[in-house]
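Standup notes
- DV: blocked on the single-chain target, sequence here:
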Amino acid sequence: MRQGDSGSGPGCPARDSVFRDLKNLQALKNSLDTNRFTPLAKRVYAARRILVLGGDLATVLADYLGHHLNLLGLPVYVSCSAGSITHSVRSLTERDLVFAISFRRGLRQTVEGAERARQNGAYCVGITDTYVSPLTRACQETFLASIDTVNFGASYAAPIALINAMLTAIGEYRRPRTMEIVHELDEEQRKGARWYSA
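- DV (later): unblocked, structure below
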């Protein structure tokens, strides 16, 4: 086999990567308590402001969650740098909701942001990969999704699936309003000027 040729047999690293993602998704499916989503959806709609904290690679997840909450017309702000997080959490109160996303040892800016938000009275929801994460101490509620991978980085297949499940529950909580938005989005997809047209 040539150097750099990953092959396609049972020991193929690319195939192993897909199997690891599937294993992470299966673990999420087996451990997820979907009954927790309805109270969370209620908090989302009751919040004066929703702040999503992330950093480094978790910025991708924070932006993804924030984008979809914004589509639902919710008052969301995504903060992904140390300075932005520091200033964003300063004015939070008990009327606000925070999603803090970080994995493994926990990114300092995200964990400290969640700690400060909770001190200010905000309800904090952590998305991480283990109950020993510092986010579980900083947040009132924690959801777990594995980021285990066979390669050099992290796999976000399970965290994305977790966020999709959350977003589905949030959308279903006020289904008539969500369907109105979906119809508007569908119309914009078909006729909106920002989409490429040949």
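- Follow-up: The domain at 15-182 is CATH 3.40.50.10490 (Rossmann fold).
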